[in-house]
Amino acid sequence: RFHIFSEDRKRLCDYSGQLKEVPDFTMPDTAALVARTIDNGSVTFLMQDDIIQLSESDSEIKHPGVMNSWLGIPLRNQGGIYGVMEFFSIVPSGVITVEDVEILRYVSNQTALVIDYKRSVESLIESETRFRSLVEQSADGIAIIDKQGTLLEWNASLAEIVELPASNAIGRKFWEIYAELKGRSSGSDVSAEEFRDGFFKMVNRLNTEKPYIGEETLSFDNGVEKIFQVSLFFINYRENVSIGAFVRDITNQKIY
After folding, report:
1. How far apart are CA 202 and CA 211, in angstroms?
2. Rounded to two decimals, what is the model's pTM?
3. CB neighbourhood size of 232 (10 A)
4. End-to-end CA, the chain
5. Alpha carbons 230 and 141: distance in angstroms, whole number
6. Which of 60, 112, 131, 204 counts the most CB atoms within 10 A of its CB?
7. Contact yes or no for 214/230 (Cβ under 8 A)
8. 253: buried, middle or exposed (CB in 10 Å: 19+, 13-18, 0-12)?
9. 3-class DSSP assignment, residue 150
10. Strand, helix or coil at 58?
11. Which pLDDT tens digit goes with each residue over 40-95?
C-alpha cells in the first residue's frame, strides 16, 4: 500500500485497498513505521522480532500481531520525499527476504515515477481549470495572443464589449482584428498591414519595459462611442510566452 503526502504536506493520504482475499484480516497499524521511514529518509526493513523490540521501547509503534516482516521504501522526486511505499507479510506466509528488498526497491522506484507523473498531470489539469474559470467568468475582456500575433483566447466579456464573437476572432491575427474594429469605428476601410509592424514593436517593448496600459476609443454601429482601458503584458501559458490583454469598458468613468 502507498502513503502519499497531501499537497500541503501536512497529511499522509493512505492509498491502501481492502485485502478481501484474506478473510477476517485487519490491516496492521504501521503509521509509526511509515513516519520512522520518512524521518530516516532511507529504506526500513524489519522482521517481526525487530518490530516487537521497537514497540516495547516506543509506544507509538504497535505490536506486529500476525505481521512477520515489514518493508518501507521512501518515494522521492526532485522536491524530496513525498510518500512511502510499504510491503508486509503475514503469518503463515513467508517473510520478505533481503533478496526481495532489491526487487521491491526497483518496483517502488518505478511506481514513484508513475505516481509523480500522475500528480503532475493532475496539478496541470487543476491549474488549467482555474485559469479557464478566470477567463470565462471575468467581467473584463481577456484575450491571449501568441508571439506570432495569433489570437488564442477571446472570452465572452470581450466578445460582448467590442461586439465581436470569439468565433470571428480566435485563430486570426491580432492586427486583422484591430483593423476590423478601427475600420468599423471610422466607417472606412483600414489596412491591417498598418498595424502589423506596430504589433511586433509592441512585443519588443513588452520584452524590455513594464506592461503597457493605455486607452482606446471605438464607435459602434448604433452610434455609441466607448472608451476602453487596455492592459498588455507577457504571460507564460501552456509552456509558451504569450501576450495577455485585459480590456475594460471605462466609458461611464470618463463621462461622469
Report:
1. 10
2. 0.53
3. 19
4. 66
5. 9
6. 112
7. yes
8. exposed
9. strand
10. coil
11. 888 899 988 998 999 888 888 888 888 888 888 888 877 778 788 888 888 666 77
